[in-house]
Amino acid sequence: MTQPMMGHHFPDDELRRALQRLVRLGGLLEPHQHAGLKLSLSEVMALGELGDVESMSQQELGQLLGLEKSTVSRLAAGLERRGWVTRERTRSNRRFSQLRLTETGLAVAEQLGSELRARHEQLLDALTPAERDALGVGLAGLVRALEGQRTLPPPT
């Protein structure tokens, strides 16, 4: 068994313990199966955002996901390699790429969305009405606190 070190370097509080359990139980650090495909959390999130619009710039996707420019570029390239998005340079500024789901990408996003909806229903059904209400209030508060501390660079 692992022996704890004297003096904690990381916070030992309720928030850290809850987030650790959520990340572990959700398998968020490793790619996992969705819609019969192995996807990373970034890919899942990107497909969700792109599935809600006809197209968006790579920069917009980065802002929505809270990712740096180079990370979004690699993410978009990977989605393009998988045949899920097209990237086209914008006419007004050739430095910017416009992203659009392909038919295959839209089908993957729809299947993924369907699986996630079913999973969310399953999880929420396991909660009492009071727990669901408390979860909504607590998560909204946590999001508000995080938004107040957000330090992403301004859009370019």
Describe, in plain words, how this protein is organized in 3D.
With 156 residues, this protein is mainly α. Helix content is 56%, strand content 12%. The protein has one domain (33-149): Orthogonal Bundle (Arc Repressor Mutant, subunit A). The strands form 2 sheets. A 3-stranded antiparallel β-sheet has the order 3-5-4. Strand 4 and strand 5 form a beta hairpin. It is globular and about 50 Å long. The mean pLDDT is 87.
List keywords for this structure.
6 helices; Arc Repressor Mutant, subunit A; 156 residues; single chain
Give a nutshell description of this structure.
With 156 residues, the chain is mostly helical. The protein has helices at residues 14-26, 41-50, 58-65, 69-81, 103-125, 129-149; strands spanning 32-34, 37-39, 56-57, 85-89, 97-101.
